[in-house]
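Key idea: predict the complex, not the pieces.
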Amino acid sequence: MVDLSQLTDDEVFRAFASYATIILSKMMLMSAATAFYRMTRKVFANPEDCATFGKGENAKKFLRTDDRVERVRRAHLNDLENIVPFLGIGLLYSLSGPDLSTAVLHFRIFVGARIYHTIAYLTPLPQPNRALGFFVGYGVTLSMAYRLLKSRLYL
Amino acid sequence: MVDLSQLTDDEVFRAFASYATIILSKMMLMSAATAFYRMTRKVFANPEDCATFGKGENAKKFLRTDDRVERVRRAHLNDLENIVPFLGIGLLYSLSGPDLSTAVLHFRIFVGARIYHTIAYLTPLPQPNRALGFFVGYGVTLSMAYRLLKSRLYL
Amino acid sequence: MVDLSQLTDDEVFRAFASYATIILSKMMLMSAATAFYRMTRKVFANPEDCATFGKGENAKKFLRTDDRVERVRRAHLNDLENIVPFLGIGLLYSLSGPDLSTAVLHFRIFVGARIYHTIAYLTPLPQPNRALGFFVGYGVTLSMAYRLLKSRLYL
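Result:
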C-alpha cells in the first residue's frame, strides 16, 4: 500500500471530489424519480414490468408513454449529456493547478445551475428558466476547457 | 517522464481500474448487440443505413422500430445512467484511502449486479430480477458516495 | 497545498488531458446543434419551450419531432455511448505507463474517428462512412482495454 495523501490532500481536488459526488448523487435521483412516476402512474416500457397489474391483454394497456415520465427522462438525459463533460474536464482541470477560489467558484456555479435546471424542468417553470440553468452550466464547463487547452495543450 | 508507480501500485486503485475496465467493456457490447439486431432484423433509424437493402420507397419500409432493438437500447441507456456515477464516484472513492477488502467488495457487487441486470433485461427474466440488479448496483454507488461525503466533504 | 506536478508533468497524461478535452468539447457542440435546429425549425419537446411562438392550441403544433433534430440527438447519444468508455478506459490506460507514441496514436485516431463519425452522421454521408468512424473509435477503446486487462488485472 502506498500513501496517496499527496493527491487527496490537494484542496482543489478535494473540492472537485465533493461537488462531483453531490451532482452525481443528484443525477442518480432522476432514476428514482422515473421509477416512482412509472409505479404510481402505471406507465411501463417493458411487458414484464406490468405483470403484477394484470395478465395478457389486460397488462398491455400499461405499455404506454406518459408526459410526466418522458419529462423526467429528458431531464435525466440532459443531465447525463452535461455532467459527463463536467466530470472529465473538471477532473483534468483540478489536476492542472488552478487557483483554489476560482476552481471552487466554477464547481459551485455548475452544481447550482444543474440543480436549478432540474427544478425548472420538473416543475416546470416557464422559459427561460431552464435555458438559463443549462447555459450557465455549459459556460462553466467551457471555461474550464478553455483554461485547460490554453495552458496545457499537448498534441 | 515521471514515475507514476505511486498511484498505480496502490492496490485499491488497481482493483478499481480492473473492474471499471470490465464493466465499460460490457457496456460497449451493448453497441455491438444493437448493431447485430439492426442488421439481422433489418430495422434502421437512418435512411442511409438501409440503402443496401433497397432503393427509394422500397428502402423506407426498413425505417421502423422493433421491440428487440428498443429493448437493447433501453438496457444500454440504463447502463450509461448507472455506470457514469459508478466511474466518477468510484474513482474518487478509490483515491480516498478505503480499506482494500471493503473497496473490492463494492466493485465486485456492482459489476455482478450490472451483468445480472443486463441478462435480466435481454432474456427477459420476470420481475423483480431486473429491479434487483438495478437497486443493488444503485445501492453500491450510494454507499461509496456516502463514505466520500462523510469523510471528505469540502465545500 | 501540494505539488501535483508529478502527475501533470507526465507526457502521456498531458496528451490524454488535451485529447479528452477536445473530444468532450466537440460532444458539447451537439447540445448547441440540437438547440439551434429546435429554434430555427420550431420543433420542441416541452410545452413551455414554444410559449413565445403562440398560446394554447396554437403552441401545440410546435410539439413534434423532426428528422433533422432526431438525427442530431442520435449522433449525440452515440457520442455519449462511445466517449464515456474512452474517458474511463483512456484515463486508466494513461496512468498504466504506456509508451508515449503508442498512447498518442490511440488518442489521435479516436478523436479523428469520432469527428469523422459526426460529420458522416450529420451530412449525412452514405454508408459505410459512419460505420467506419464508429468501428475505428470502438477498436481504439477496446485496444486500450485489452492492454489494461492484460498487464494489470487485479481481481
